[in-house]
Amino acid sequence: MNAKNPNHPPLTFYTANTPNGLKVSLYLHEAGLEHRQVNVDLSAGEQKQPAFLSLNPNGKIPVIVDHERDLTVFESGAILTYLATKTGVLQPTTQAKAIAVNQWLHFQIGGIGPMLGQLWWFLHGSKTRNAEAIERYRKESLRLIGVVDMKLARSAYLATDEYSIADIAAFAWLRTYYELDLDLTPFPDVRQWLTDIEARPAVQKAIAANRGASETTEAQEA
């Protein structure tokens, strides 16, 4: 995992088959950025080896290395913000829009991701069934989806009237509703938004690339 190999494409992307890994893949494909994808074998503990910890001391995916700037970035939200700022692709055109995108990005990072991630863990990762925890995280996940639905009732996209990294971040998690036994029937605008985004050619490419990465759990990604 050499962060300074001049023979690499401009970007190296360390990932696994997770919502947070998908976030970055979605942006890379939307922006058409040349990159090398490195699938980290989380089940083998590659993310805890010294080579990977030199890139992210927290030992989680995703990570990107920008060889043009000799810069390493970890945390999915930070990566999305960095790439959008660097390339200008999906970058808000006004300060007001930038603030809106940032707040909805943080809404995903601080709310949607942790709650759906915990629900996934108690449904699929835990060795014992904790009905109270499942009910708690299911209720909170549905509440957050309801917030998104209310916003999408007023606009085609989450933060502004344009597709943004806030949509990318939320989409990567909310598309997992079927794995989490979450009923989206009460949320027609979320359902339409998911359908519209999934139809984008770049999204289809990113989903396919993400499926080629190894499986993981919420606790091993950021």
**How many H/I helices?**
8
**SSE succession:** EHEHEEHHHHHH
- What's the architecture of the largest domain, going by CATH? Up-down Bundle
CATH top-level class of the largest domain = Mainly Alpha
- Beta-strand residue percentage: 5-15%
Domain GST N-terminal: 8-91
InterPro entries: Glutathione-S-Trfase_C-like, Glutathione-S-Trfase_C_sf, Glutathione_S-Trfase, Glutathione_S-Trfase_N, GST_C, Thioredoxin-like_sf
Protein name: Glutathione S-transferase
Family: Belongs to the GST superfamily.
What does this structure look like?
The protein is α+β, with helices and mostly antiparallel strands and 222 residues long. The chain has two domains: 11-90 and 204-220, Glutaredoxin (3-Layer(aba) Sandwich); 95-200, Up-down Bundle (Glutathione S-transferase Yfyf (Class Pi), Chain A, domain 2), CATH 1.20.1050.10. Helix content is 51%, strand content 8%. The chain is built from eight helices and four strands. The protein has helices at 19-31, 50-53, 76-87, 95-125, 131-152, 165-174, 188-198, 201-211, and strands spanning 11-15, 35-39, 63-66, 71-74. Strands 2-1-3-4 form a four-stranded mixed beta sheet, covered by helices on one side. A hairpin with a 4-residue loop joins strand 3 and strand 4. Helix 4 (95-125) runs antiparallel to helix 5 (131-152), helix 4 runs parallel beside helix 6 and helix 5 (131-152) crosses helix 7 (188-198). The radius of gyration is 17 Å and the shape is globular. The two termini are 19 Å apart. Mean pLDDT is 94; it is low at 214-220. GO terms for molecular function: transferase activity. Belongs to the GST superfamily.
